[in-house]
Recover the amino acids of this structure.
């Protein structure tokens, strides 16, 4: 994995840990807020209940006061309404903050009622007849709610007893109920007291007993208000808002959000600086090493950090490498030179051997020439003299003299060969048509060709470029090659003569790769090929055929200088002579000459 | 038939000179005088005043070229045509150069009698 990727992972991991920690912290904080909030809810409920109780206290006190009253007992017993109208009147309602009062006889029949709600309260009874027993079965006081056309009314009631029966042990002398309407005013007061929004909802409305929404700082709870039969009649919904909690939660969210942005910024900064401090220098180093161009890391040298040192090391490395490369190149060059010198030495050695041979042959030839030619001169002159002295009928003697003359000629030819070989003759170079030289040479060997019934196939190219050669020397070369070819063919063979011009595809050396590169690649040359269907040359002799005195002919048939002379002549012309051969199939001599400029 | 031409042959090979003399004289047109010592070549030329001198180049006592320069320096002999006899130059080369190499006439050994007469005749006509 790339270091860059690893670094990214690391940064990412750190940020992830940071974020998770942050979320945990926020969550714990939130929980703490919620816990605190829940405490608040309990308090709120408690306070609310207390308020309700306090609110209802006046009503309860009124009920309590008028049910332990001998006057009340008396009034119910006598049904004299004077006392009731003087005591339990609108003034009392106002004073006790009550909206309605009902008084029942012990047989549950209504006796007296008053209200300030603007309708006949006697028609609006708080309880059906059968409810009394149930209500007061166990306790003296009761508390329930009823629906009135004006709204929900809180009712408190009690059994009436004489003051002598403080504990209410005696049978009820009557029943007393006081009601208070929970109107808008009441709710407003209650809301102000409890700092909540209070509303009455239907019992059918689903409401949890407590609902906490900390993020909004809202607490909602409900109280069930029961009817006389102890069955839920209405539900009281209390909705409180806590701005502090809301503020705290908002701040908390904001902090979280800010921290997220902060993390993102840190990540971004880390990425930028990781790229700037690590990735870019690494890439520059990599580019430098790839391209071997120091331009990439030049800027790094200015930095006073680790990369400055690395840059210096790379510079040093490249310098050392350059020195090494140069050293290697020099060593290679030296090796090449040494190899070339060795090859040259080898060639020179071979050339020296050749030259020494030639010199020896030359010295021998010029010495022999003089010493042999003089006696040959005598022999020929003698033979000439004898010829004239012989009478025509002395045929045998005549033939003998002829043989003497022929032998002198042959001996003379051999000496000429030796002289030819040894002498450095100045060439008479003229632009010549190689085909015409070939034609001339063929005429000179015509007899030899006919004697062996050899067919000559000419595949010479017409309008061939001229070559700068010594006509006689070239003729000598072709005659030599043709005579060799003729000699190699036992009887009835074929000699193919080709000539053409071409452009060399590669550098060409002298015979057997010895000598300087005679022809450059792409140089235009004229090529002459003389191919025969003769006996061929065994492979072991191919390398030796150009050596002076190498011959496969029988003793007396040749001196072994022919091809050697040919090579000398071609060498002098700056050309190349090559021989290819296959035993029993034939040989091919190829001569390559430069075109006359 | 006119007067026989006098040919002086200066060559150290006695047998060669004898046979050349025999062959030339057999042709009937020449009187041949032999001198086998190079050193005596000039004297012989002064004495016999030949029409043509056949002069060998390589001789043990004096080289043909030296004899030729002696002959060239003397008023009496300087106009006598000289044909050098050489065993070094090839007959073919001599022929190719028209028998003249570096201003001198040459014949190469071995040379047949007929060929020699041919050269002598050509020289005598041109001089």
């Amino acid at each position: 994995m790339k270091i860059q990727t690893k670094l990214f992972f690391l940064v990412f991991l750190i940020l992830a840990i940071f974020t998770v920690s942050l979320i945990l912290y926020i969550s714990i904080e939130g929980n703490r807020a919620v816990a605190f909030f829940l405490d608040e809810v309990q308090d709120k409920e408690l306070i609310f209940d207390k308020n309700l109780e306090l609110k209802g206290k006046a009503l309860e006190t009124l009920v309590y006061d008028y049910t332990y009253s001998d006057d009340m007992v008396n009034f119910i017993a006598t049904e004299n309404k004077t006392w009731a109208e003087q005591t339990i009147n609108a003034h009392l309602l106002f004073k006790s903050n009550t909206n309605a009062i009902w008084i029942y006889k012990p047989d549950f029949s209504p006796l007296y009622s008053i209200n300030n709600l603007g309708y006949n309260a006697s028609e609006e009874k708080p309880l059906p007849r059968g409810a009394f027993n149930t209500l007061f079965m166990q306790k003296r006081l009761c508390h329930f709610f009823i629906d009135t056309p004006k709204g929900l009314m809180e009712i408190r009631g009690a059994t009436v007893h004489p003051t002598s029966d403080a504990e209410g042990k005696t049978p009820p002398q009557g029943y007393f109920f006081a009601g208070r309407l929970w109107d808008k005013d009441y709710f407003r007061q209650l809301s102000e007291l409890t700092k909540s929004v209070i509303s009455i909802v239907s019992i059918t409305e689903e409401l949890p007993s407590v609902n906490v929404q900390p993020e909004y700082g809202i607490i909602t709870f409900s109280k069930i208000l029961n009817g006389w039969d102890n069955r839920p009649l209405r539900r009281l919904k209390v909705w409180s808002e806590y701005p502090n909690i809301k503020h705290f939660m908002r701040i908390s969210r904001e902090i979280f959000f800010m921290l997220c942005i902060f993390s993102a910024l840190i990540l971004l900064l880390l990425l930028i600086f990781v790229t700037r401090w690590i990735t870019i220098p690494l890439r520059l180093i990599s580019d430098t090493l790839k391209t071997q161009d120091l331009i990439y890391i030049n800027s790094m040298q200015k930095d006073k950090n680790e990369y400055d040192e690395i840059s210096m090391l790379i510079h040093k490395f490249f310098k050392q490498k350059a020195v090494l490369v140069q050293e290697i190149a020099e060593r290679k060059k030296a090796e090449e030179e040494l190899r070339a010198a060795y090859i040259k030495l080898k060639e020179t050695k071979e050339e020296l051997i050749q030259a020494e041979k030639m010199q020896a042959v030359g010295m021998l030839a010029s010495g022999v020439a003089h010493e042999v030619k003089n006696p040959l001169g005598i022999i020929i002159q003698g033979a000439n003299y004898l010829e004239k002295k012989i009478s025509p009928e002395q045929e045998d003697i005549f033939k003998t003299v002829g043989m003497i003359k022929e032998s002198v000629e042959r001996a003379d030819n051999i000496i000429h060969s030796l002289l030819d070989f040894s002498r450095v003759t100045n060439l008479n170079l003229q632009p010549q048509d190689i085909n015409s030289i070939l034609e001339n040479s063929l005429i000179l060997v015509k007899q030899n060709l006919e004697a062996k019934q050899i067919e000559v196939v000419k595949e010479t190219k017409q309008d061939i470029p001229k070559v700068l050669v010594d006509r006689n020397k070239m003729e000598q070369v072709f005659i030599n090659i043709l005579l060799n070819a003729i000699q190699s063919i036992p009887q009835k063979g074929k000699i193919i003569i080709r000539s053409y011009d071409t452009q060399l595809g590669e550098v060409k050396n002298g015979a057997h790769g010895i000598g300087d590169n005679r022809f450059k690649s792409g140089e235009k040359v004229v090529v002459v090929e003389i191919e025969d269907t003769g006996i061929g040359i065994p492979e072991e002799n191919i390398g030796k055929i150009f050596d002076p005195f190498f011959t496969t002919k029988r003793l007396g048939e040749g001196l072994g200088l022919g091809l050697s002379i040919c090579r000398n002549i071609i060498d002098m012309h700056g050309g190349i002579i090559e021989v290819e051969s296959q035993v029993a199939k034939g040989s091919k001599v190829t001569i390559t000459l430069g075109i006359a400029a | 038939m006119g007067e026989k031409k006098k040919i002086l042959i200066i060559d150290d090979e006695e047998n060669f000179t004898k046979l050349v003399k025999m062959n030339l004289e057999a042709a009937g047109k020449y009187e041949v005088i032999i001198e086998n010592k190079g050193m005596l070549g000039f004297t012989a030329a002064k004495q016999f005043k030949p029409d043509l001198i056949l002069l060998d180049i390589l001789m043990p006592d004096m080289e043909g070229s030296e004899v030729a320069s002696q002959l060239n320096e003397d008023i009496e002999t300087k106009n006598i045509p000289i044909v050098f006899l050489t065993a070094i130059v090839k007959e073919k080369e001599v022929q190719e150069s028209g028998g003249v190499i570096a201003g001198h006439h040459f014949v190469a050994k071995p040379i047949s009698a007929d060929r020699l007469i041919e050269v002598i005749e050509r020289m005598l006509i041109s001089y």
